[in-house]
Design a protein that fits this description.
Blueprint lengths: L3 H7 L7 H7 L13 E6 L6 H12 L3 E6 L9 H8 L10 H6 L2 H7 L2 E7 L1 H8 L6 H8 L4 E5 L3 H5 L1 H12 L3 E2 L3 E4 L5 E5 L3 H10 L10 E6 L4 E4 L2 E3 L6 H12 L3 E6 L11 E4 L3 H12 L4 E4 L6 E3 L18 E3 L3 H6 L6 E8 L3 H12 L3 E6 L10 E8 L2 E9 H19 L11
Parallel strand pairs: 1-2, 1-3, 3-4, 4-5, 8-11, 8-13, 11-12, 13-16, 16-17
Antiparallel strand pairs: 6-7, 9-10, 14-15, 17-18, 18-19
Helix pairs in contact: 2-16, 3-4, 3-11, 6-8, 7-10, 12-16
This protein binds ligand PMT.
The site of ligand PMT has 29 residues, from helix 12, helix 14 and strand 16.
Amino acid sequence: MPGHKQAMVESCPLPTGRITVRHQIGYTFTMNSLCNKRVLLGITGGIAAYKSAELVRRLREQGAEVQVVMTHAACEFITPLTLQALSGKPVRTELFSTQAEAAMGHIELARWSDIILVAPATAHFIARLTYGFADDLLSTLCLATEAPIALAPAMNHQMWKNAATRANIRILEERGIRLLGPAAGDQACGESGPGRMLEPDQLATALAECFSSSRLQGLRILITAGPTQEAIDPVRYISNRSSGRMGYALCQAALEAGAEVSLVSGPVALEAPARARCHRVSTAMEMYQAVMDEAGHTDIFIAAAAVSDYRCIHSAQTKIKKSTDPLNLVLELNPDILASVAALPGAPFTVGFAAETDSLEEYAMDKMTRKRVDMIAANLVGEGKGFESLENALEVYWNGGSCSLHLDSKERIAHQLIELIAERFHEKNPDQGTEPAAG
Ligand code: PMT
C-alpha cells in the first residue's frame, strides 16, 4: 500500500524527538524524584555559590546525574575541584577548551541535559540571559539547549527589587524560564529582604517538580514488566532476557504524569518506584492472576512484560538427573494476558508491546489487530537490542496513526511513550481524567 505509511506518520500528533515531548510536559504538580535525570548545574558568581556544593549532593541523592558548569566569577567563591569531587564529573568552565570540547562539545552538552538549573543565578547572569549573551560556556549552553531552564536567583534585596532586574525576570518568565525562589530573610551583606537563594533541599524538591505534569492525573495505570519464569524442576526454569527496565521506566514516567500506578513485575533486580504499588510474581499464571484482579478497575493497561508463551505441563518435583537420553519437555500455552484484558467488557485503554527480530511493522500490526489493543509499541530485540539494554527505540502504532521514538535511554523513551498514550487516551475518553495541557 504505497503512501500508507506516509499518511500514518503525518497523522502523528507529536513530533518524534525527545525535546518535543519535553515541551509537552507541563509544570503543575508535585513529584519528588530526579531518578536518572541529567541536570546541568550552572553556578554563577555570588556568595550563595558555597551552597551549590550541598546542592550537588542533594541532587545526586535524588538520583540525578549532575554536570557542573561554572562561570569564572563563580570560581572566585568555590573551587571547581570541590564540585568535581561531589558531582563525580570534571567541571566545565571554558567555552574555548579544545580538551573539554573533544570530550563533549558544548552543543552536545546542551543536548545532554534534561534540565539546566542555574543556582545561584546572579542579577548579572539574569541580565545576560535576558539579552541572549553567548560569551561564556554557561550562557551559550542556555541559548543552545532545548531543555527547560530553571533559575535560583541570589542577590542583595535592592538588586532583586531594582526595576531592571524586575523587567528581566518578567521577560524570562514569559519565555517559560522557571524561577525557584528567591526566599526572603537575612542576607550575606548583613541586610534583610527578598533575594536569598533557596536552601539546597528546597531546590532539589522544586527541581523535581519541574519534571511532573498532570497529563494522567486521576487515572489508574496497570503495567506489567520483566520476564516470567516457568519451572522445569525446582532449580531450572524457562525464561527470557527481559531486565524489566522498560516497564519500570514506564512506571516512573506514569507516576510523574500524575497517575496512580500498579506494577506487576516478574523477577528482576530492580527496585520499584516508591509511589507505585508493586506486586511481584514469578510465573505467567501468577502475572495473569495479578493483572486480572486489577484490570477491572484500571483506566490504562500497559503490557511491557516479556511473558513466557509456554509453561511445562508437568514441572518435576525433584531435580531432573542428567542422562544421555534426550530430554523431552511437554509445554502448554500460557494465557495471553494482554488479549485477555483487551477482551474484558469495558476494557481499559490497552497498550501492548511487540518484541520482534524482523518484520517489525508487519508483526506489530498483526498483534495489534489480533489482540484488539488500542496501541502497540514495537521494538527490535536480539543482538543487544531491546532486552537488557539501557536504551531502546520504538515504532508505535494505533488505529490511524504511528510515531517513531528514536534510540534513547529507556527513561526518555518511556516519557515519550507515556505522552503518546495520554494523547490517545484523552482522545478516546474526552471526559475522563485531566484534559491534556496545550502543547
Ligand atoms: O525488560 P527490558 O530488558 O527493559 O526489555 C524490554 C522489552 C524488550 C521486554 C519490552 O520493550 C517488550 O518488548 N516487551 C514485550 C515482550 C514480549 O513478550 O513481546 P511479544 O511480542 O512476545 O508479546 C506481545 C505482547 O503481548 C506484549 O505486550 C506482551 O506483554 C503480551 N503478552 C505476551 C504473551 C502472553 N502470554 N501474555 C501477554 O500479555
